[in-house]
Every structure is written in C-alpha cells, then in structure tokens.
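Entry:
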Amino acid sequence: MFGNDRDRMRQFYVDVWHKAGAGTPLDPMERIVAEVIADHPEYHPLLGTGDETALNRDYTPDEGQTNPFLHMGMHIALREQEGADRPTGIRDLIQRLIAAVGDRHAAEHQLMEPLGETLWEAQRAGKEPDQAAFLERVRKLVTDTAGGGAAH
C-alpha cells in the first residue's frame, strides 16, 4: 500500500478510522481497513487519538506486545488475497477455513501463521514469497481444521 513508508501507512490507519467514525464515504481499500480496525477494539484508543508516541513506536518482540499495525496489516493482506484469489486457489481455502472455524476473524488469526512463516522465509532469503509453499501451508491448515477431506 505504501511500500516501506511506515509513518504514512500508520497515519493511513488513523485517517481511515476517523473517516469511518465520521460516516465519510470510504473507498474499497479504506472499507477493508475500517472493517479490520472495527474487529480490533483494543487498538481503537491508539487510532482514535493518533498518539504520536504510539504511532512512532517500534514494537519489538522482546517487549512482549504485538505490533498493532503489523497485526492489522496481516488481516488486510489476507482479505486482499481472498478478494483477488491470489495466489489462485487461496479464496476457496480461506472460505473453507472460515466455514470450518465459524468466524472470519478467528480464521484469519489461524492464517497468520502460514502467512508469517512464508513472509519470514522470503525476507530471510531476499526473494519474493513462495506462493506455492504458502498455498500448501494453508491447505494443510484447512485440512487439519476441517477434519480431513480432499484439499484442492
């Protein structure tokens, strides 16, 4: 969305949340972002105030706190992948997992592990994410969660 411009991306979340709260019309991407934010009431105070300290903070694993922007970004990435069916077949897999879990938000949380693993491997190798490996991880997750059946 904004490449590597962390500050612009974080400000986008704040701006979208303010627009959504004001009832201002949102474009399709803003609607996705607003839906994800709405699913995370624990982040509403951060986004509602636009606290510069929190927006500029480095959320490191050793702090024991999840990076709210990374977390919401993964939800957004999964919804974009589902909407575009990219990689091909991901839409069906995500919809099957949602049906098996019974809740989109909970299913997306499960999908974050294979997504995170795939992104971590790509970053470590200095390559694009391996879409086939990602699909295979998601297929396994769906099969394990849904209780077997043929993965396609």
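The two ends are 30 Å apart (CA to CA).
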